[in-house]
Amino acid sequence: MRALIVYSKDKRLAPLAEALGRGLQSVGFSTQLLEAQGDSSVKFSAAPFDLVCVGSPVLGFFGGGIAEDITQMLKSMSRLEGKVCVAFVRPTLPWGSTRSLRNLMAELERQGAFVQDFASVTKSSEAEKLGKRLANVVGSS
User: Which residues form the domain of 47?
Assistant: First the structure.
């Protein structure tokens, strides 16, 4: 099985994306990490992947916002329709992550994706655990 992990350029998301990749690899996925490009002219196809994971920082004082580079990347990504997807956010404050997760999931669903799991992660160990549990998400869809 192949997994794509798309994450915002926020410097705190790269280690979480890498840990998520390690967790996925430990349960048999081959993974590809892709840092989001804010330029909507960059085209990328999700067709070869069984699972697409998308990560954004929580933006805004009360949360609810997601990174603009993620929004642009999802709009320019093709073949997301019908894909099993996972949304994850990294909160900066103890509140607001639920609203950001909802907004990220809504953006994925606008592109036709099926969001099967979601999480708010702050540590690499949490991201790795998320990756390990995702084998069940793809297997059950």
Answer: 2-140
- Structural domains of the chain, count: 1
The number of angstroms, rounded, from the C-alpha of 110 to the middle of its chain's C-alpha atoms is 15
CATH code where residue 35 lies = 3.40.50.360
Cβ-contact 32, 5 below 8 angstroms? yes
| Alpha-helical runs (H) found in the chain | 13-26, 68-76, 97-110, 124-140
Pairing assessment for the beta strands 2-7 and 30-35 based on DSSP bridges: parallel
3-state secondary structure of 36: coil
Query: Block means of pLDDT (10 residues each) for the chain, length 141 residues?
Result: 96 96 97 86 88 95 86 92 96 82 96 96 96 82 50
pLDDT score recorded for residue 139: 64
Q: Cα–Cα distance between 25 and 28 in angstroms, integer?
A: 5
